[in-house]
Amino acid sequence: MDYLLELLDRLYTRFPMIEKVTTYAGPRSTLNKSPDELRILREAGLRRAYIGIETGDGKLLKKVGKGVDDKEMGDAIIRLREAGMDVWGMFILGLGGKEGSKEHIQGTIDLINRTRPHHISALTLMLEEGTKMYDDWQKGKFNPITADESLIECRDFIAGVNFDPIHFTCDHASNYVPLNGTLRQDSEKFIKIINDALSGKVERRPEEYRGF
Question: For 34-168, where are the alpha helices, taking DSSP H only?
């Protein structure tokens, strides 16, 4: 806490034009701080927290080594929000593979509806050589979803979010179709874009350009 407070003070003192300071917040490190400590950090100028949710499926969180279960992930999001921070969550389309797709997306929908972050971004899984998931894929232990199935996961997530407003983005370089707007206000528009991409009416990012 002392280090973080000193860092915030130096940033705002030395760079007076700064509008806000943000952080990537791990769920475990968030839960290691009390609600009062998080509020103190917010009052000192820590305005936004980005948190890698990855998935709301507790079993999948354990499998990918996130270090928390779905309840703890939810508690971390709520704790950041109640401290007054602008909370931006991120999850990964395709993380559950073909076999775990349904549980992955439904669990993520349930988590987001329960915790209500201010922003949510969907990224799309890219298997990188040297990672355990890449090795599992090479050994036939992980069955990745297709581009169409990734779009369907995104569509199902959008349709499942039942509160508003929440800022939603799906415009990372890993995604097949860029989306950026507000749920539920733009939900029908987003779903139409996805359906058009599935039918070939909307161009999607080629596989070789993903990540660039």
Answer: 35-43, 58-63, 70-82, 101-115, 132-138, 147-160
Tell me how far CA of residue 107 lies from CA of 11, 56, 74, 120, 208, in angstroms.
38, 4, 11, 15, 30
Six token digits for residue 19: 């509008």
What are the structural domains, with CATH classification, of the chain?
2-202 (3.20.20.70)
Q: Output the pLDDT for position 50.
A: 98
Structure tokens at 4: 């973080």
pTM score = 0.95
Strands in 166-169's sheet, in edge-to-edge order, are: 21-24, 46-54, 86-93, 119-124, 166-169, 180-183
- Tens-digit pLDDT profile for residues 189-209: 999 999 999 999 999 999 999
Q: Which residue has the tokens 């996805």?
A: 194
